Amino acid sequence: MHMQIVSLFPDMLDAVIDYGVVSRAVDRGLLQLGTQNPRDFADDAHRTVDDRPYGGGPGMVMKFAPLARAIDNAQAALPAGCPVIALTPQGRVFDQDLARYYASLPGLTLLAGRYEGIDERLIEAKVDEELSLGDFVLSGGEIAAMAVIDAVTRLLPGVLGDESSAAEDSFMSGLLDYPHYTRPEEIDGRRVPDELLSGDHARIARWRQQQALGRTYVRRADLLARMTLSSEQQALLDEFLQQQDASGN
Ligand code: 9D3
Fold first, then answer.
1. Quick one: 140 and 188 in the same domain?
2. 227 occurs within a structural domain
3. Does 137 share its domain with 210?
4. How many whole angstroms from 146 Cα to the centroid of ligand 1?
5. CA of 67 to the centre of ligand 1 (A)
6. pLDDT(200) > 80
7. What count of other Cβ atoms lies within 10 Å of the Cβ of residue 112?
8. What is the pLDDT of residues 52-101, one digit of tens each?
9. Residue 249: predicted pLDDT
């Protein structure tokens, strides 16, 4: 897969490109990354990329022409038909289903905005979808673009080992993770749950699934509402909630 990122601050992308899973995917030839800086496509001596908003108000707006040329150069580096995705606060909230869809494509262009916004005509003419990370205010689209790059790269075939990809597909998918513990067995009177010390693999798996179901119910009822639980999962959740009632939490 090939991702092109259009950004006024391409060096920010090094934070995701130079480390961990993304860096390894690039080294192994599973992912190609390129950046386009709209400033390199400005047409005046000052290399202007922003201007004052029509109608007045605070802040500056990203100009159409430098962005359009940067996007065209990004798209020219990709196979035909790849989508242009703008990271904006007005976008659809990015999720794992979208990450899976983008990971199935041969390429995409990510446009990170800066300033108060982007000239709307650029979005109409060149952008296929707007994505947001959620309802909080960032200073620009770069961090959101990095989140998309990381989430999509992890899903590319061959990027993660068999162990972690199997975990994605398991019965736990769609649920929050169960609690994790490592040595020592006791810290300030807090013990590792007996189930995890039992050596009984079926009992451990049952406990983990019950914890995952219970935590998802308590913390993210919205996730559980979108799932259909098997009768075994429903029984585990009922037992979790009974135990919770009994412990007065
Ligand atoms: C406080 C300024 N806002 C006035 C209503 C508008 C605004 C403009 C530009 C708010 C944030 C930004 C920059 N943000 C992004 O480019 C962005 C973003 C975000 O802020 N939150 C969640 N996801 C994203 S994706 C891109």
1. no
2. yes
3. no
4. 15
5. 18
6. yes
7. 25
8. 999 999 999 999 999 999 999 999 999 999 999 999 999 999 999 999 99
9. 73
Nearest atom (ligand 1) to Cα of 91: 25
Q: Which two tokens stand for residue 148?
A: 């998309």
Tell whether 120 is covered by a domain.
yes
Say whether both 22 and 141 belong to one domain: yes
CA geometry: angle at 130 spanning 125 and 135, to 5°?
Answer: 150
Give me the helices (H) in 54-200, please.
Answer: 64-76, 96-103, 120-126, 142-153, 162-169, 194-197
Choosing from 98, 128, 153, the residue where a domain stops is 153
Q: Is residue 162 part of a domain?
A: no
Same domain, 127 and 201: no
User: Who lines ligand 1 at CB under 6 A?
Assistant: 87-89, 113, 116-117, 132-134, 136-141, 144
**Would residue 120 show up in a list of annotated catalytic residues for this protein?**
no
What tokens appear for 96 in the block? 């794992």
- The DSSP code sequence of 56-74 is --SS-EE-HHHHHHHHHHH
Angstrom distances, CA of residue 71 to CA of 65, 102, 115, 148: 10, 18, 18, 18
